[in-house]
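in:
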């Protein structure tokens, strides 16, 4: 190895300082660069994930390890919410209940077409009439040869029993008020109840009234701070490495402490 600036004798020590030629300076720079690269490769990497976790936890109380590997979109999460809300509705208002109410409506609101067998109770005395339904007008029905006033019929019979359109409406209304509307109201309450938990489960937090993906929060609120600290970390380490290498090369006579800033060998290699 060429020792540039090495003191060969006492006479040299007292003589003027040796100047580096361009070729010598190039060799010194190569040495400095190699030493810097070797030392830089041994530097402990900056732990950006740990810092990200700490800053995120401080900012949002969210633990980074909770973040799912595969993030869902808003539409996908809303689909999950709807699915779970409907599952809850099915527990409280199962489809079988609707079928039971449909059957109940048939009993509660019977319907008769001409020629159907019919049995009714009439008046306070509950007189029983049984026979074949022969038709109806706005006020009376005919059973066999008898005409009976509709208003005198006891439940479950009424004018609804002899009007096909009205009977259909009453049966549908019975199902609606006992199943469809309560289920709809339950669903309206269930969605906002489970929504925050589902979004949290899939890596979203509520920020200023809106759900925002944790990676977006990290990118906008955490990463700039992490990047700044990482830059400072490496700047300090690299500055220390340059100083150490300069000291080594001075001790070995490979580097002169004098000269212009442009001749700073280690500093040049770090750029």
């Amino acid at each position: 190895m060429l020792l540039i600036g090495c003191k060969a004798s006492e006479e040299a020590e007292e003589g003027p300082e040796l100047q580096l030629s361009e070729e010598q300076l190039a060799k010194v720079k190569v040495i400095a660069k190699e030493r810097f690269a070797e030392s830089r490769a041994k530097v402990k990497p900056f732990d950006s994930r740990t810092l990200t976790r700490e800053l995120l936890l401080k900012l949002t109380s969210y633990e980074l390890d909770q973040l799912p590997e595969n993030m869902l979109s808003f539409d996908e999460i809303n689909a999950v919410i709807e699915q779970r809300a409907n599952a809850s509705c099915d527990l409280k208002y199962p489809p079988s209940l609707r079928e039971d109410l449909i059957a109940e409506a048939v009993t509660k609101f019977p319907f008769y077409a001409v020629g159907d067998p019919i049995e009714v109770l009439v008046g306070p005395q509950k007189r029983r009439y049984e026979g074949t339904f022969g038709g109806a007008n706005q006020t009376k029905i005919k059973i066999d040869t008898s005409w009976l006033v509709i208003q005198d019929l006891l439940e479950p019979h009424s004018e609804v029993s002899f009007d096909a359109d009205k009977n259909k409406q009453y049966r549908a209304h019975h199902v609606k008020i006992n199943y469809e509307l309560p289920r709809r109201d339950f669903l309206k309450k269930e969605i906002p109840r489970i929504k925050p938990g589902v979004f949290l489960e899939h890596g979203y937090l509520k920020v200023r009234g809106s759900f925002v993906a944790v990676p977006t929060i990290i990118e906008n609120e955490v990463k700039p701070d992490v990047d700044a600290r990482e830059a400072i970390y490496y700047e300090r380490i690299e500055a220390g490495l340059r100083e150490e290498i300069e000291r080594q090369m001075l001790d070995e006579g490979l580097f002169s402490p004098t000269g212009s800033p442009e001749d700073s060998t280690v500093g040049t290699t770090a750029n």
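note: Residues 76-109+171-203 form one domain.
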